[in-house]
Every structure is written in C-alpha cells, then in structure tokens.
Design brief:
832 residues; seven-stranded mixed beta sheet; six-stranded antiparallel beta sheet; 23 helices; 38 strands; elongated
C-alpha cells in the first residue's frame, strides 16, 4: 500500500514531523514502512520560464532554438525538439543544470547538440516523473507565474514523500489514507476528522427513483448496496495535481470521472464504480439487479476479456445481462466513455468470502478485490457516494441528483465489548491510565456506550472487522501506546534439580548409529488399521481432519512407520533393512510409567483436562540379508535383534542386562511366540525383541521375515546411569575352572548361567558361556554347553593390600557347590 505524506498532512493539518519520523511512528503502531521514496527530490533547480521566441536549428531540421526569459530579465537559449513549444508569452518548464530528472537519474550537465551547446532542458510530464508517457513538453498558460518561479513552488504537489506500507490482512482500514491518518492522529495526539464534503449543485426536477431501480436479490453476498447519480457530466482529463498523485500511488489516470473513483478508493479504502447510465437498462428507470450469475453466462470485463461465469459469481446486472463482476471489475458494456453525460455511482459492501472465491476462480487480483477480500467499511457508503458527487461537480461540472439508495439485508454484527482496567493491566503487565485507554479507543473510532473509572463499554467499529473481543481492545491500546512502553521484566525462576532433557535421546541415537542402524523419521500420525494389525494399544487421539486416511490417529507404536519405510525401501530395490526410529507414543490415561518427577507424572483419569500419556520409545527393524564380504549373505535373525537390544541398553545405561522368554507377555503378541524375549535390567523390564509374527508379516505384505526391537525409554531413563569408577588391574592371579553340561534344548542357557553365578558364591568374579556343541554321542534334542568360572579374592580390586591368593581347596569347594546346585535344580550332571 502506497501512502502519500502530503495527503496525510492534508488530513492532519497539525502533522509537522519529517518523513523519517512519520515512518518510524507508523512502524511502531503496526503499519510497517518497507520503503520511502521522494519523487520530487532533485527537482529544486527546475523553474518556470517564459518563451520569447523560437527559430530553426541551423543543422538539424527536427530541432529548434528556443529563447527563454528567466528571473530578473535574464535570457537563455535552449535546444529543443518538442513540437508543441508555445508561441511567445507561453510558459514552459526548464530543468537547469544540476537538476536530477527521474528520466535521467544523474545531474543535468551542458550538452552540445548539432554543434550548439544547450545548458538546460525543457521538460515533459514523463521526464519530470509524474506520468508514464506524455506528448510534448509541459506547457502552462501565459502569465501563469513569474519567470524563474521554482516548479515545486508553483506545483507543491510534486514535493511529496511516498511510504510503502506492509499492511497485514486484518487491517483493511489501513488500505486507505483515512485509516492511516486516523491511527497516526491517535499515536501523535492530533485531532482527526473525516474529510469534509463540499455542497454540490443539484439537478432540478430529477429524482434518483426516476433514474434507477435497485433490486438486491443476493443480500447474503451483498448486505448493503449504495447508488447515487450525477447529470450533465463533462468528460475531460483530471487536473494535473490529481493525475500526478494518482500516478505516484500506482493508479493510471484515465478521465476525471474514473479518476474520482480511484481517488476515493485511495482516500477511504473503499472501492467504488461508475456506470454510464445511458448504457444501463433500456427505456425508463435503469434497473440494477444484484444477483448470482446463471450457468454458462458470459460477460466482457473492462480489461477486454470475455469471461465465462460460475453460478457462485456475484454480478451487477441490468435487463440485458451482467454489467459488473461484483467487487472485482466492471463490465465493458457500461464503461465511462467520451460520450458519457449521466453517471451512476456504485458503493457497496460485498462479503469478503464471496469476492475472494470469484477473484481466485477468474485469476483476477485487482485493487478492488484486494480490499473487498479483507472487508471494507460498511458504514461509510453514504460518505463516499456524497464525496463522489461533490468531486464530479467540482471537476466535471456535474449536477448531483439528490439522495442515495441503500438496498440490502443484515449487516455484520457490531458487538458490544467490555474493557476492564484490571484486565488491561494484567494482560499488558503494566499499569495503564484508564482515561488514556478510553481516549485511544475513542480516537480509533470506537463508540463509547458507557464509561466508569475502571470499566468501559464500546461498540465495535464498522471499519475494524478484526476487533470483536476484550483482548482486541487491549491490543489496540498497547499498539497505540507503543510496545516500548511495556517494561521488560525477567520472570522469577524457581531453582530446580538439573535435568538431562534430550540427553538420553541423543545418546540412544548415537549408539544406534554406531551399531549400524539408520534413523527413519516417521509421522506421529498413522492408520488405525495398522495399529490393530500389530495388536498395539487402541489409539486415544483421533484427528477430525486428517491429511489422509493413513494419518488418522496418533500412534501408540513406532512400528507402523518403520514398516512403511521398509515397504518403501523394498519397492525401490533395497533388500537389506536396518532402521530405527525414536519418538513419542500416545497411550491412554493410566498407562504405567516411572514417575521420575512431578513434571512427568500423568494427570489422574478423572481429571477433565487429562491428556494422553506421551511416552518416549525406541524401535528398530532388521530385515533382509546381512552385509557380507566374499561369502554368501545370510538373512537377519533373532540373534541380530538380541545383539542390538543388549548392546543398546547396556551402552546407554552402563548396567548389565538379562533376557527372559516373552511367553505371551503383554505387548509382545505381535512377535513370534518361539523367538520373542524381554530385556531386563535388574528386575525392571525395559523392552522386548524378536521376529514379527507370521500373521503380522502376511498382513503387512512384507517380503521377508522381520526382526524388531522395542525399548521403553521412560523406563531406561528412570534407571539412571551410574558413573564409571576406575578399578585397577588385580595384582593377584585368578583361578579359572571350566564346566560342561549336557542340557535339553528346552532348557535356556541363561537359566543355567544365572544359577552358576548365584551358587558360586562371593569368590566367583565372573561366569560366562564360551562353547556350544551338538551331535556326536549326545542324545537327540540335547546340546552341550561349556561355562567358564573365574575365581578371585573380592578384596583384590578394592583392598589389594588385604587380598590373598585363593587356594585350590577354596575353589574346589565352590565348584562342588555349583555342580550340586545344577544337579538339584535341573537334574543334570557334568558332561562325561
């Protein structure tokens, strides 16, 4: 939006700030100034000169030599090629040396033309930068001013500053100079009044009813339609100051009638349209019909394009058909022309949504639609129409037809809003004098209905559709007082224990990557059917407007996203899959989780504001062949999943893990019953792993068996992480004993290993499985497992000075206890 500083000063006579100061103030009240330009800068040396005579150039037939009179009787000869140099006595515009014309961009310097030096230049409107094009130089009537008069003194309109405002969509009032001036007046404490409308001479013996009938058949799309008329109009170019101002503000001057409608749009921010009354309707009163277009109806708009209308388009029509596309552009059939003598003026309020749809449909973004889409002032129709009639009388010699027509339905509501002083201070965090707040609201155009020392009731203004609640009024007060008037106060901070927010997640990601996994970033929204196929918890958050059906609920498991990534990778020819994902799952209220702090404790189930419990999880997925070199590749199996699970948990927690068969434990039903296992740290289950159940593999149409690992990071975080302590290398030697047992395949090696550690006593430093043998003389469905037990005095690590070397007798006693415990518990002895 371009705004003229000269126009603002006309609306605010007391405005005496510089352009920079005005720009800073506008920006501070939310009307950001993106750029400042001064079109008249560089024109100070340009003056008016009197033509004394003209003669032909001696060597150039297309040029002439013009003798000019300057100030104090001085004369000067200029070389000029213009064909419209006036006769002696006429006035022209002379750019003296040093002038910076917009057409040149550099200071004017002496120039030899055809062998004759010319120290200046006679200027056209285009060369002065006040018009896009012009025919010949600018000529003024004889005696218009004394020779030597500065151009900026004769035409003050040229001395202007243009601000480029970044107007937000919620401020349609700022798309007109009146709205900008109103805000600036309140911010600077200046008086403001709507532009005064001079009385226009009226046409006698003619009534508006006799000229036009308005039939509003679409009051929902056009709640108010205003019409007025003027007769005996003389079409002509607008006065130079009006044309030049319109040009600077981005409007192409056309004729006095059309220019008046654009002038008022820039002034009030309310578009209007002028019809040639002779081209609207037939005999008798012209009939204007506001209606929706019929299917297949066509019209030609002012840009000369024939447009096929939609039944959702709102049109202004006469008995013959559409004459304007409401709120967007007028029609060619009723445009103002050189023969126009009677003008019908339109100023209406069209609903923003309807204009927006029509403009998008026909790909027409006009100055009119830009304003109507944001919501124009529906309370200024008579003001704008009256001002248009007055300008037509002044600039086109017209006679105004008395009265205006307003036809419509229900206008947008103007709610009554209560503003409380206590709420104002609380929301802004600073004490605001309430009388000042009321003054600001009154200055912004809000009607004060009732007022007390601490409370006021106002009616929302028709020019501010964005203000409807108390917080909006408070924002207006803060905006006008300046955000810098609100002190910056640092909030008090309650000391808390150090928390490692995000540290665990970073450690898990780094560890997973070091184990050869790649991270997959998956959606938090999944298909409900995917969760059902996995037997995951029932989702508790369903989206009302999902992106797609596959993103309908918030996930209760990370596996659907990983399985989707696996399928996508397979479709693109990637056989080996080693992926992991880390993120939150959203589980029902009451889901158990470690209560590490009050901040992470879920709300009670009967709390009306209770939300689903968001729990951090890790999941990994292995499928396809392992990486291999110079050997046949083999498929990933459950031992790969076990290695990932154990290594990840032990590296992150620095604690030992143990495994147990899942045996259908909750949360593992989607895993193969013979391959699923749970991971424990101490007595706390932190997750599980195993191959996906064949039914799940089939339901997801997976191409190969898939191994998964799932770890509850909330449980892992609650376990803590012990600080590593240095242990010196023992100086005393250890005693190592190996034992081998023949075990049935149904007996887990982990159960035997746990019993060995338990029964070996405190002298046993470690026990580990180191060999497996099947076949040979072993019975069917049996295997031989060899375990290595290491014995050493426990004091060797902590109190080396008091430690002793163990004797064979001490170690033998421990070994006998081990063998006896295994025989008593499992009924097996040493392998012979």
């Amino acid at each position: 939006m371009r705004v003229s500083l000269r126009w603002l000063k006309e609306l605010l006579p007391g405005l005496d700030l510089t352009a920079t100061q005005v720009a800073e103030r506008l920006t501070s009240i939310g009307l950001a100034v993106d750029g400042i330009s001064q079109p008249g800068r560089g024109l100070a040396p340009v003056i008016l000169a009197k033509v004394l005579g003209r003669e032909a150039h001696p060597t150039r037939s297309t040029l002439g030599l013009v003798d000019l009179e300057l100030a104090n009787g001085r004369t000067q000869r200029i070389v000029c090629g213009a064909s419209n140099v006036p006769a002696a006595g006429g006035m022209v515009v002379l750019a003296q040396l040093g002038s910076v014309l917009p057409s040149l961009g550099v200071p004017l310097a002496p120039r030899a033309i055809g062998g004759i030096e010319s120290c200046g230049m006679l200027c056209s409107e285009a060369e002065l930068g006040v018009a896009q094009s012009s025919e010949g130089i600018l000529v003024l009537p004889p005696g218009a001013a004394a020779p030597g008069t500065p151009l900026l003194e004769y035409f003050p309109e040229l001395d202007d500053v243009i601000f480029e405002l970044d107007v937000t969509p919620n401020r349609p009032d700022a798309l007109g100079h009146v709205g900008v001036a109103r805000d600036l007046a309140v911010a600077l404490g200046l008086p403001f009044a709507m532009p005064s409308i001079p009385a226009a001479p009226e046409a006698s013996g003619v009534t508006l009813d006799a000229l036009v009938e308005v039939d509003n058949r679409a009051t929902e799309r056009c709640p108010s339609y205003g019409a007025a008329a003027a007769l005996r109009v003389s079409l002509a170019p607008s006065p130079a100051p009006m044309r030049w101002r319109l040009e600077r503000l981005g409007q192409r001057p056309i004729s006095n009638v059309v220019d008046i409608t654009n002038w008022l749009m820039l002034l009030y921010g309310h578009p209007m349209h002028a019809f040639d009354l002779a081209q609207v309707g037939s005999e008798g009163p012209a009939q204007l019909i506001i209606r929706q277009a019929t299917a297949g109806e066509v019209m030609t708009t002012l840009d000369g394009i024939e447009r096929k209308l939609d039944i959702d388009d709102l049109v202004i029509a006469d008995a013959k058909g559409p004459t304007a596309l409401a709120g967007v552009m007028g029609g060619a059939s009723s445009e103002i022309s050189a023969t126009t003598e009677r003008v019908l003026l339109e100023c209406a309020y069209f609903t923003p949504q309807g204009v927006r749809r029509t403009a998008r449909r026909h790909q027409m973004h006009t100055d009119s639609s830009h304003r109507f889409e944001r919501g124009v002032d529906f309370g200024d129709l008579q003001q704008v129409l009256g001002h248009a009639q007055a300008l037509l009388a002044e600039l086109a010699g017209a006679r105004a037809v008395a009265g205006t027509k307003l036809v419509g339905g229900v206008l947008p509501a103007q709610p009554t809003i209560r503003l409380r002083s206590a709420r104002l201070d609380a929301l802004l965090g600073v004490a605001v004098p309430f009388a000042e707040a009321v003054r600001i609201l009154r200055g912004l155009g809000f009607a004060i209905l009732s007022e007390s020392a601490s409370e006021v009731e106002v009616r929302a203004a028709s020019h501010r559709p964005d203000v409807s609640i108390e917080a909006d009024l408070i924002e207006e007060v803060a905006r006008m007082r300046g955000l810098d008037a609100i002190p910056t106060v640092l909030p008090s901070i309650t000391p808390q224990f150090q928390r490692g927010i995000g540290r665990l997640e970073r450690d898990v990601i780094a560890t997973a990557v070091s184990l050869g996994l790649s991270e997959a970033l998956t959606y938090g929204f999944v298909a409900k059917e995917s969760l059902e196929r996995l037997g995951a918890p029932v989702p508790v958050v369903t989206l009302l407007n999902p992106l797609t059906e596959e993103r309908g609920v918030m996930r209760t498991s990370l596996l659907p996203g990983l399985l989707e990534a696996q399928l996508r990778a397979h479709r693109r020819g990637e056989p080996s899959i080693r992926l992991f994902s880390l993120g939150g799952v959203f589980l029902p209220i009451g889901t158990a989780r470690p209560e590490t702090s009050q901040a992470t404790r879920p709300r009670e189930a009967d709390d009306e504001l209770a939300l689903p419990v968001e729990m951090p999880y890790f999941a990994a997925l292995l499928a396809g062949p392992r990486s291999s070199y110079l050997s046949k590749s083999e498929e990933h199996d459950v031992f790969d999943a076990k290695a990932i699970a154990v290594e990840l948990v032990e590296r992150v927690t620095r604690l030992a893990t143990r495994l147990e068969r899942a045996n259908g434990a909750p949360g593992t039903l989607h895993l193969h019953p013979r391959g699923a296992a749970r991971i424990f740290v101490g007595e706390q289950c932190v997750g599980h792993f195993g191959p996906l159940h064949p039914d799940v593999v089939e339901s997801f149409e997976l191409e190969s068996p898939t191994m998964v690992v799932e770890i509850d990071l909330a449980v892992v975080e609650a376990l803590g992480r012990p600080t590593p302590r240095y242990r010196p290398i023992p100086r005393l030697p250890a005693i190592v004993r190996d034992v081998s047992f023949v075990l049935p395949e149904s007996l887990a090696a982990g159960d035997v290993l746990s019993l060995l550690r338990e029964s070996a006593g405190p002298l046993c430093e470690s026990a580990e499985l180191f060999d497996l043998f099947r076949g040979g003389s072993l019975p069917p469905e049996h295997r031989a497992l060899a375990f290595r037990l290491t014995y050493r005095d426990p004091k060797a690590a902590t109190q080396p000075d008091q430690a002793k070397t163990l004797t064979d007798a001490e170690v033998d006693a421990c070994q006998q206890a081990v063998i006896k415990s295994v025989n008593d518990r499992f009924g097996i002895g040493l392998r012979s």
